[in-house]
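dumping this here before i forget
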Amino acid sequence: MIIAGFVLLGLVIIAIGYVILIYNRLVNLKHEVARAWSNIDVLLKQRHDELPKLVETCKQYMRHEQTTLESVMRARANVSSAREQHDLRALGDAESRLRQGLVQLFATAEAYPDLKANSAFRSLEARITSLENAIADRREFYNDCVNSNNIRIEEFPDILIARFFGFESLDLLEFSDQELSDPDLRGLFGA
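structure:
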């Protein structure tokens, strides 16, 4: 009888320990996703600050390209709004439009040799390109963290703990199909 009590107590302690272990892993994943998002957020803010400088530099040379410049600034505002609201679907769409606008802006800048020679433009172009690459890398890391979280909270027995403690599935940061395909450079150059 006493041995059975100790065995039962041991099993209860092991079960509680296992629940604590699963809970801690889920919390770890949740914070890993938050950290990954924070990295993206910092890069988005940095790029957000650089875009007006780029547009102002371009305005001095590209007097007939106001539509392109305005579309970049509109897309910038949409990205900022979606980022502040933590709306990943809207952010993905806004990011796609912004990237398309930047591709068009940089392609259009090719027609302005004085602009291409401008050191401020070259510096901003390099900085924004660097930020774009970093955002793409961080987006991949973020989506990996989200996938790990979503898989973990659907596995048994983790699903029981996740549901009990309110852990939820998270959205991936996805861009449109247009964003994932190569840009149509012939269309940008009027060929």
